[in-house]
Amino acid sequence: DIQLTQSPSFLSASVGDRVTITCRASQGITSYLAWYQQKPGKAPKLLIYAASNLQSGVPSSFSGSGSGTEFTLTISSLQPEDFATFYCQQLNSFPLTFGGGTKVEIK
Amino acid sequence: EVQLLESGGGWAQPGGSLRLSCAASGFTFSSAAMSWVRQAPGKGLEWVSGVFGSAGSTYYTDSLKGRFTISRDNSKNTLYLQMNSLRVEDTAIYYCVRGHPLSSSFGMDVWGPGTTVTVS
């Protein structure tokens, strides 16, 4: 199985900060990686698909990059509504797997 | 509006069974890749099972050891998850999700609100 390691697991940041979350895969997954945002008590929401494509309706402050084994999710200017937990997911091979999550909290 | 709505969650004893259903609307269900994803209390996301492609190939996470079966009824626009030999560690919110319409390898773009399964 492909393991995904997210870092950091916890992040404290202020409104307006630039935030970067990393997801590393245990083997190459080309660009078959997605990023999700989950707020407490809610279902996850797709932010980025195929590593770098912004899902419809998602603010352009979110961006994704990477291929192979290393990927990043960047929030260019953190807004109050962005505080949540973020997950990466690989869809290159079965079983599909998620990273452990990164919780972004207000400093 | 594209929607997924799960049902069938509840309480079960260890060793028991439950069948989850997911009613889909607002899109062509028969051509969509569909999956179940679960989240144990206070934990991260875990992909459980999916049905992909025109042949309806099914896949499962390794830890299930044949206890769960995914199926779909395209005439009813409904996805199912039959869960047998339930264990305490199966306690979770179960989400029904749709594979991205451009490619199921791109991500999962629609999520239901989830249904809670408690095994104790």
Order of helices and strands of chain B: EEEEEEEEEEE
Termini gap of chain B: 37 Å
Main beta-sheet annotation of chain A: 7 strands, mixed
Tell me the distance between the termini of chain A: 36 Å
Tell me about this structure.
The complex is a heterodimer of chains A (107) and B (120). Chain A is an all-beta fold and 107 residues long. In chain A, 0% of the residues lie in helices and 50% in strands. Chain A has no helices and eleven strands. Chain B has 120 residues and is an all-beta fold. Chain B is 0% helix and 52% strand. Chain B contains no helices and eleven strands. Chain B starts with a strand and ends with a strand. The model of chain B has no long low-confidence stretch (mean pLDDT 96). Chains A and B meet through β4, β5 and β10 of A and β5 and β10 of B.
List keywords for this structure.
heterodimer, A: 107 residues, mainly beta, seven-stranded mixed sheet, four-stranded antiparallel sheet, 11 strands, 0% helix, 50% strand, B: 120 residues, 52% strand
SSE topology sketch:
The complex is a heterodimer of chains A (107) and B (120).
Chain A: E1 4-7, E2 10-13, E3 19-25, E4 33-38, E5 45-49, E6 53-54, E7 62-67, E8 70-75, E9 85-90, E10 97-98, E11 102-106
Parallel strand pairs in A: 2-11
Antiparallel strand pairs in A: 1-3, 3-8, 4-5, 4-9, 5-6, 7-8, 9-10, 9-11
Chain B: E1 3-7, E2 10-12, E3 18-25, E4 34-39, E5 45-52, E6 57-60, E7 68-73, E8 78-83, E9 92-99, E10 108-111, E11 115-119
Parallel strand pairs in B: 2-11
Antiparallel strand pairs in B: 1-3, 3-8, 4-5, 4-9, 5-6, 7-8, 9-10, 9-11
How would you sum up this structure in a few lines?
The complex is a heterodimer of chains A (107) and B (120). Chain A is mainly beta and 107 residues long.
